[in-house]
Fold:
Amino acid sequence: MAFKGLTRRQFAAIAGWSALGISAPLAGSRRAEAAASSGFPGGFLWGTATSAYQIEGAVHKDGRGASIWDRFAHTPGTISDRSNADTATDHFHLYREDVQLMKALGAKAYRFSIAWPRVFPEGGGSPNPKGLDFYHRLVDELLANGIQPFATLYHWDLPLALQDRFGGWTSRDTPKAFADYAAHVARHLSDRVKHFFTINECSRLVHLGHQYGADAPGLKLSQAGLNQVRHNVALGHGLAVQALRAHGRAGTMVGPAENAVSCIPAIETTENIRAAEVATRELNAGYLTVMLEGKYTDAFLTRAGNDAPKFTQEDLRIISSPIDFVGLNVYTPDHYVVAADNERGFTLAPFPASFPHMKASWLRPGPEAMYWVPRHVARLWNVKSIYITENGTSGSDQPAADGTVYDVDRIMYLRNYLTQLQRATSEGVPVLGYFLWSLMDNFEWSDGYEQRFGLYRVDFETKRRTPKLSVSFYRETIARNAVV
Ligand code: NOJ
Structure:
């Protein structure tokens, strides 16, 4: 608002930017202001996101096999509130009601995940037709209500049999089994589901699941083991892309849903912006970079040294199979970047202890991540279609005396992030849609039910859903196609 009535040059002069060598074109508020009046592009797709294990419950229903998360959650000491997702929100039975919640928002898209162990209880071999039936019912219900289904194939619930048989993602057999599962899903669902995501957040599943042991399967591998898992996961992505192309109907589209390591220029100078791009490419070397370039960067291989993954040129070709879009989960800035005269060309500024966070201590609000992450991805790799596959925050979300959850912290967070997204789209960054995490409170992995991310509050005893104030915020945003 401080910009009102001034030209950019006038403001830059007052602000003393030119003296500091800071270019004004990225002056945020002015752009945000202009964008705010024009809103998001026509046809921008608004949706919500969830994942199977976090909401479905019914873990023994219709022949579903066990997943690594069933065992992990039932292992003492893994989940902070000692809970599990055996019943979760009971979406398996309440999906019709949940589709009505989406409809009430005016959302036109829904990102959900398919539980691999429902479809192949043993990970491979004979499929369980009843398992896929649930997704047939869900997809039909969505379409009947004017909501486009976007399906994620893997949101971390690996069939336990694959972990036990050959060590899950530590083995190249898992990417192969994943491709068979992807082919099966493509054959049965691609008549109605046009958009598929391969793997959700490769980097979290690699690090929290296999380095720190905080997520299933709870491993703490050596650096060499970890690098191999990372490679196998990327290979799984590539094989699944190929399987969807080979077995999906014409018009099937596919891409990853990645939580790219987000690198934000600490101050928007030309030098810092360039440094943040270099950092983005380097810090995502094992994920988006190899998927989009078909090679590991020299710096990545040098750093890995003898611990580098074993791979062939054919692997790299598979990993970089052409995709139709990039999905990005954007929550928090991972690094503020400052250009530096060192070998890497950048410094990652340490976070001061005073940096704020939302209810989850890892979730530092840095709305500008929502501008920079898609912009870097579009510029670095000439990506033409991007979806924000997740964004949102947890909150304490306690009902007030009148029974309403006034989650103004979530509204503040969303308003700021969406303003930055509006800035990106108004500058031509090709973001086609946005999926808010999450439709309703759910099982937040090792945080159990202590972190509530939903627009709708869930009473986990009765499974009753109640709209929080943020439902009104999101409904209004969707209706206006602009940040409210
Ligand atoms: C990303 C994950 O994909 C999702 O499962 C999780 O609940 C959210 N982040 C919030 O942590």
